[in-house]
Predict the 3D structure of the following.
Amino acid sequence: MSPPLGGAAELVFGVVERIGGKYAYGPIPRYQVVEGRAQAITSDGYEFLALSPSGDRILARAESRLVLLDLAGVESALITDLLLVSGARTAVWVPDTDSAVYIEESADTRLALCDVATRDRRELAGTGGALALILPSSSNGLVWLGRPCFSDDRCESPSAVNVFTGTVSPLTDLLRPTLDPTGTYLAFLYQDDQQRRRLALSPADRSRTVRPVVPGDHILGHVRSPDGTGLLVVALVRSDYSGRWFGSRQFIITPGTWTRGNCRKPQRPMPSEPGHAVVLAGTQPDPSGYAVTLRRVEVLDPGVSLSHANYVFVSMMAWRPLR
């Protein structure tokens, strides 16, 4: 799902610190994999939202301001100072374009489209009440939700918005829908009779629907590989004894054939000397049954201080190929 360690790429990511019931964002670091060198390019207070399709600009939030940053972390443009702050995704790049779509808040929430090169901006009619965005699958389609969709919530069916024509199309009974990069296959969630979220797959024209039996009790989410050859699915597992969510299962589905393969689940980690890598022993399906696997995973020493007294985590990541 991502370039291998040591490839000609760098990683841009956002850091979030949880302080009580609130979250503090920043900094945004860049990690150059080949050199093993990282640099925090912003101070605290910036939430990393996305890397531009060209890879040379960063879309970030600073409180209610939506800004463009260059690769040195310098603000190059202010897109809006009325960005909706909701804890959900409220701004995205439109694929293969130089435009960003975001949710603006004034008397009501609505979607707006901004060409970041010319600074031309226009509202998208018929999108009032939008509170969260799903990353668009193509340059013509953007999906917006009426409210955020979390693990234990009921989800609402979204609508697809053509960002150029302004056409709004309700996607009835589809939750978190995504198309593969070729626009051929559709993946979405639906709620069964017990209000559990399940996975469904179909061709883009929905001529048929496949509802695979997957491990886990509740589908948390899914994401496509950049080339569209795999769909990574994460399912939550509920304890039959306590009723609590206690873990997750990850698996990959191949579009078209709809075959499912379990992701390797590390069982026994062993750090190397002097501790810069970890060997993971696990089990995965094999043509003859199952096979024991060993993987060596490099520990990326970030070179920047990511240690905090409170719980800290990475909110968003993006690979940037080095030209």
